[in-house]
Each structure stands twice: as structure tokens, then as C-alpha cells.
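Quick one, C-alpha cells below. Sequence please?
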């Protein structure tokens, strides 16, 4: 039975935004590749730890758009986090066998850097 890319991405997003970091992490493949504008995450474990750290600071998320095609999906959302204010985030996902194998994220880095969250 094929896995539903959009359902996987939505489940991941819903999990981390509701602070269920265990469920979110379980949807990440061990071979996860992450491309983000600040910081580096060489392993799924390092990304999951950062997701929990930053996600714990998020107070609100408004999903603006979800699109998927085949094994790829995209999310566009606004999030509010205590140290950075509101950020608009675009994420591109690749899913294989029900797990997220790649995340590419784009957002303004100025508020993240100003909050001291960029390495």
C-alpha cells in the first residue's frame, strides 16, 4: 500500500506544532537531509533536537497553504515564537516509504539571528 505524502507531512507538522515531538521525530527517516538558512543538522537526531528546542518556543502557527505531488509536498505557514516574533516559513518535503527524507526550509533569518538562535 503506497504512503500518502501529504498525510505524512500534515501529520509531522501537526505533531511538532502541538508539541508532540516524539511523533514528529518518528516521521523523520534516519537518512534525513535538511537544508535550512541557518545552522546545520547532519543527522535526523540533531534536527529532531533542534525542532524540539525551537518548537517549544512557538506559541502560534497558522497554515496558509499545503500542496503535494507524488513524493513531494510543500507547506507555507506563519509561526510566532517568543524570541523571534512572527516568521513566514516555506518548507519543501520529500517523502519515501512514509518517512520524510528531505526538508528544505526558507525563512527570513534576521529575526532568528537577532534572537541569538543562529549558530
Amino acid at each position: 500500500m503506497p504512503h500518502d505524502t501529504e498525510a505524512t507531512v500534515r501529520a509531522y507538522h501537526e505533531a511538532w506544532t502541538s508539541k508532540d515531538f516524539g511523533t514528529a521525530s518518528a516521521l523523520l527517516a534516519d537518512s534525513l537531509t535538511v537544508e535550512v538558512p541557518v545552522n546545520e543538522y547532519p543527522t535526523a537526531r540533531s534536527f529532531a533536537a533542534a525542532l524540539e528546542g525551537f518548537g517549544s518556543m512557538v506559541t502560534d502557527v497558522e497554515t496558509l497553504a499545503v500542496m503535494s505531488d507524488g513524493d513531494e509536498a510543500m507547506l507555507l505557514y506563519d509561526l510566532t515564537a517568543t524570541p523571534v516574533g512572527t516568521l513566514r516559513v516555506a518548507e519543501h518535503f520529500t517523502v519515501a516509504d512514509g518517512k520524510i527524507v528531505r526538508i528544505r526550509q526558507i525563512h527570513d533569518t534576521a529575526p532568528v539571528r537577532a534572537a541569538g538562535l543562529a549558530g
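Residues 5-114 form a domain with the Nuclear Transport Factor 2; Chain: A, fold (CATH 3.10.450.50). Helices lie at 5-17, 21-26, 44-55, 110-114.
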